[in-house]
Design goal:
The chain is 40% helix and 15% strand. The protein contains eight helices and nine strands. It has helices at 17-25, 68-83, 123-140, 153-166, 172-196, 235-238, 245-259, 273-290; strands at residues 31-38, 44-50, 53-60, 100-102, 105-111, 202-203, 213-216, 219-222, 230-231. It is globular and about 55 Å long.
Length: 299
């Protein structure tokens, strides 16, 4: 089978294995040639061997997605959490910097952290997760992001809807029906926000699902704060829930038992769970549209 022709318009078309290895060398660490691409669709992430040292993980930021200031806010937040003995995987400081550049790419280097998927069907696991999330949010509430976006109806809902409307992503015979459904969904989201009333926005992990939590015998390690933003605390809680409504009610009870040992939780935010779930679905559909023309990762 003929190999696909590289697409020079793709933002990562120039990120060859040699470029990845040379990028790590530019920080003063010496790559030993071992290179393993890890699962990441938004950025490009590689586990890399280092001469006479433990392996590291290098994350190459998608060109044009974040400003330098926004990336550095992410790094500063994780460093602040790590200074509080919260188990987050923060970028290494190399040559007095956490954000590096090579061949037109921006990247950060992290210590390799092993772990297994968390068992969210266990009440004790949920309580421990709640305690750590309470500690993260207690730190997150100390200040606000200045350069990172908020999670709200406008950015996740209306902007995502407009992307899908403008690109002719749906067949003509389905467009009107889809438009009606998404408007109905966004009206439901707005109703949930109205029921909750004003809620506090704080610095969040932003994408706290099982894939971004590595569990060890010592407990969880939180990774990938790439989607960190301002938003309601419940955004970092609802993705831990599964099953029917009664099961989810029991799970959130366990989480909050641990959470409120370190951070007060406004119960009105529970009205936002279905709203945030709906916004995530709309946002994800727009994300797929934006990435539609990208080649497969294995290409």
């Amino acid at each position: 089978m003929r190999s696909p022709t590289p697409d020079s318009s793709h933002p990562y078309s120039a990120l060859t294995p040699d470029c990845v290895l040379d990028s790590l060398d530019s920080t003063g660490l010496r790559a030993d040639g071992r290179l393993l691409a890890l699962n990441s669709y938004e950025n490009r992430v590689y586990q890399m061997g280092v001469e006479d040292a433990a392996p590291v993980v290098a994350k190459f930021y998608r060109p044009g997605r974040w400003t330098d200031a926004a990336i550095l806010e992410e790094h500063a937040f994780t460093a602040e959490l790590a200074e509080g003995d919260i188990p987050v995987v923060a970028p290494l400081v190399l040559n007095a910097a956490t954000l590096h550049r090579h061949a037109g790419f921006r990247f950060a280097v992290y210590p390799q952290q092993g772990g297994r998927p968390p068992e969210f069907d266990r009440p004790d696991t949920l309580r421990r997760m709640g305690r750590f999330l309470g500690r993260i949010h207690a730190v997150g509430a100390r200040a606000a992001f200045a350069h990172r976006p908020a999670l709200d109806i406008e950015t996740f809902g209306h902007a995502s809807r407009d992307v899908l409307r403008s690109g002719r992503w749906l067949p003509d015979d389905l467009a009107a029906a889809w438009d009606s459904v998404v408007e109905h969904a966004l009206a439901g989201v707005a109703h949930c926000y109205d029921r909750a009333g004003p809620v506090r926005a704080l610095r969040l992990h932003g994408d706290c699902h099982a894939g971004n939590v590595l569990w060890t015998d010592a407990g969880p390690h939180f990774v990938d704060f790439d989607d960190s933003r301002m938003g309601p605390a419940v955004q970092d809680l609802w993705m831990l829930l599964s099953g029917e409504r009664a099961e989810q009610a029991a799970q959130i009870g366990e989480i909050l038992e641990g959470y409120e040992a370190f951070m007060a939780f406004d119960r009105r935010e529970l009205h936002l769970v279905e709203a945030l779930r709906t916004l995530r679905l709309i946002h994800y559909a727009a994300w797929l549209a934006r990435r539609w023309d990208e080649p497969p990762l294995a290409a």
